[in-house]
Amino acid sequence: MNLHLQSVCQLAFLSLCCVLISVRQSDSTFVPGRCLCPSTQNGVRGQLKELIVHQKSASCNKITVIVTLKSNNELRCLNPDSPLGKQLIRCWNRAHKLGRDPKLCLKRRRRGGRGGGGGGGGGQRQRSGMGRRGHGRRI
């Protein structure tokens, strides 16, 4: 009986070694260090349709920011260190923390003061009549 138990243990050990060797030499689909975006850009033109942010993971050691353009449904990878990338990441994190829809991050705020609407905001400054050459002077 002792001989039989010893041969069973040896067979089990040999089988385990064979399995480990075959797993070690087989091709694996998981490759660490592979990110979804091999190259990024600092900004995009046009309206954005969708936003996806992937945090750092075992397969990629960078935060990945992917936006979809509204005009042609094209995916673009943004640099997470660019101003737009940082803004979208902050908004994404805030939206998930508060349980809101991250698509709200894609609506760009319009600057006030456009269209003749009063004070404050963007646009050009008004110049006083005194500062221009020949205009506003009376002789």
UniProtKB/TrEMBL annotation:
Keywords: Cytokine, Signal
Highest taxon in the source lineage: Eukaryota
Gene Ontology CC entries for this record: extracellular space
Pfam families per record: IL8 (PF00048)
GO MF, any single term: chemokine activity
Disordered as annotated region, ranges: 107-139
Stretches with biased composition (Gly residues): 114-124
Domain annotation Chemokine interleukin-8-like: ranges: 34-92
Compositionally biased intervals (Basic residues): 130-139
Cleaved signal peptide residues: 1-28
Record's keyword annotation contains Signal: yes
GO BP: immune response
Protein name as annotated: C-X-C motif chemokine 11-like
Organism listed in the record: Xyrichtys novacula (Pearly razorfish)
Taxonomic lineage: Eukaryota, Metazoa, Chordata, Craniata, Vertebrata
